[in-house]
Amino acid sequence: MIVALAGGVGGAKLAAGLAQVLAADALTVVVNTGDDFEHLGLHISPDLDTVMYTLAGINDSAQGWGIAGETWSFMDALEQLGGETWFKLGDRDLATHIRRTQALQAGASLSAVTQELCAALNIRHRVVPMSDQPVRTLVHTSEGVLAFQDYFVRRRAQPTVARVEYDGAERASMSDEFRSSLESRDLSAIILCPSNPYLSIAPILALPDVKAALRNRRAPVIAVSPIIAGRALKGPAAKIMREIGTEPSALEVARYYEDLIDALVVDSADVTLGPAIEALGLRCCVTPTIMKTKEERAELAVRVLEFAQAVPVTNAAGCPA
Amino acid sequence: MIVALAGGVGGAKLAAGLAQVLAADALTVVVNTGDDFEHLGLHISPDLDTVMYTLAGINDSAQGWGIAGETWSFMDALEQLGGETWFKLGDRDLATHIRRTQALQAGASLSAVTQELCAALNIRHRVVPMSDQPVRTLVHTSEGVLAFQDYFVRRRAQPTVARVEYDGAERASMSDEFRSSLESRDLSAIILCPSNPYLSIAPILALPDVKAALRNRRAPVIAVSPIIAGRALKGPAAKIMREIGTEPSALEVARYYEDLIDALVVDSADVTLGPAIEALGLRCCVTPTIMKTKEERAELAVRVLEFAQAVPVTNAAGCPA
Asked: Which range among A287-291, B255-259, B311-315 shows the weakest confidence by mean pLDDT?
């Protein structure tokens, strides 16, 4: 049993790679919901959608979000009606939001809705939200405190970030499926996918019972660095690191996760960082991590899984210091 | 000032004809909301939409409902997700429903939302819902009591109708714009458009304060028969008349409206019914009423308006019996 924590595009790619090489009952993908928001009266879960669409093989890989072959009539008509158009909702994508919103309004949990959507999309592996309670990522910036999508989409991640807050995380708990996957006797590794540490992975880790469960884990935690040669393949991870006074590098990713993880996978471009990462007490695996094709996703998944088998749990409660 | 009461397609055509020949401040189109319903979490107002789209000139005249050049990606994706697809929602049409639902959820009245949508669609004339309170048409049928859209769309108006109920009408009042139009000193006629009497016009007339206002009117009420040569051009009006034991004819339309109207406009095909209609104490105007083109819509509007000028109020409180 593998538990993979994922956010948007990069995380979804590795999650899809893991799904390519693992049996349906051997993988639970836990997805960040800190960037969920209400928009036009709809409950939108961007990271869940990205992961679902990617695992279903219907994602628009050129654009990096949404559904391949999408049409935009709704957006066009909404613009004519004077509606808000800064967050692009494709016609096909809307079906997901409307189904989800309708089910939530009828009292279903986000987990239940997600399970239903995944079944309809013929996704065989478990995809679960981190929590069924609302957690909302707030970005403290040079322009004030911004709701996540205001920062990320409306303002195109341009404001300078001071810090990131996970509003509601203290009062939220992990979803039942997340918990039962972590508690599985067969759990062999927890993988932090190459998603933005601050915006995608940290909201999951901010849940108090997740922190506790990881402290008491018997399986290793392996992170895959989203920073390659000092840059993020996509999104503002490197920009945010600079803004909060950290050098954007896989070594700083290791330091960020240091108290939590047992090992870090870094790209071949960062081979020289290996000794410094190991000096932190972490195992380090150096391997190509850029996933441009389905084959590369599966190759990285296999590499991470093989590496995980050799990683002892060294950084949890009860381990020798 | 003309007040026109309208339901779906036929009513919308005459309303559009009236809009072609009347100044923007000389027409209020009051639209049935008895067939409004909640679907997929959205508030849908089919008659308001048909009237708005027709007045805006963006209606799909071949199909008879919806928007011309519509696309159907949402519906296709919804079907793949296992959602309800019996009520067709086009991608462009969805923008209307989402805007309306969002505004209603934020506390706006249906009148206010409708005004905003009309402004965005560049509709110059007033289009107002009959009421800002919910009235729901229920159809008592051989298959039990059906919500209007269940009867009309899902069951394609196939069940045999016993009677029609306007749930909530007793507790509802007409919208402010409807009231102020009826109370206008310049009101010169109230026109019942050629919509289904039972399903489109009766819900409006079922509002207690509409009944009272019409009883005390100083302007004539002129109905345009939706039954031509014993048939309805569109929809189940003739079928319902047969089912409730009435011969489908313009004369029976006259009898149905008899206590309320001062005059009836019937199609040239029904010229032989004129004497019988006049024997009911109503004025009768015989003229072509089929509106296949914009020109025919305007011609009928002009004809009805000219006729209205010659119709005295004979059937209201205070009139000689």
From this structure: B311-315
B24 SS3 class: helix
From chain B, the residues in CB contact with A116 under 8 A are 82
Model confidence at A321: pLDDT above 60: no
Q: Of how many residues is chain A composed?
A: 321
Residue B318's pLDDT is 64
d(CA A101, CA B81): 13
**What DSSP line would sit under B120-178, residue for residue?**
HTT--SEEEESBSS--EEEEEETTEEEEHHIIIIITTT-SPEEEEEEETGGG--B-HHH
Report the percent of chain A where pLDDT is more than 90: 94
What integer is the mean pLDDT of A105-127? 98
β-sheet with A189-192: strand ranges across: A126-129, A27-31, A2-6, A189-192, A221-224, A263-266, A283-286
Alpha-carbon distance values, A51 to A10, A29, A56, A65, A319 (Å): 10, 9, 8, 10, 34
Q: Enumerate residues 6+ apart whose C-beta is below 8 A from A205.
A: A5, A211, A214, A260
pTM score: 0.92
Please return the burial class of B106, using the count of CB atoms within 10 Å of its CB with bins 0-12, 13-18 and 19+: exposed
Residues 99-128 of B with CB under 8 A from A: 99, 101-102, 105, 116-117, 120-121
A49 reaches B (C-beta below 8 A): no
| pLDDT, tens digit, 9 for 90 and up, residues B41-74 | 999 999 999 999 999 999 998 888 899 999 999 9
Q: Is B85 exposed, middle or buried (0-12, 13-18, 19+ CB in 10 A)?
A: middle
Q: Distance from A94 to chain B by nearest Cα, in Å? A: 6
Q: Does B91 touch chain A (CB under 8 A)?
A: yes
- Chain A interface disruption, residue of B52, B94, B122, most A CBs within 10 A: B94
Nearest chain B Cα to A67, which residue? B77
The CATH number of B2-309, from 3.40.50.10680, 3.40.30.10, 3.40.50.10490, 2.30.30.100, is 3.40.50.10680
- Identify the closest residue of chain A to B90 by CA–CA distance: A74
Domain boundaries, chain B: 2-309
Is the pLDDT at B320 greater than 60? The verdict is: no
Q: Which two tokens stand for residue B4?
A: 């026109």
B17 CA to chain A: closest CA distance, Å? 24
Return the number of other C-beta atoms located less than 10 Å from residue B147's C-beta. Answer: 16
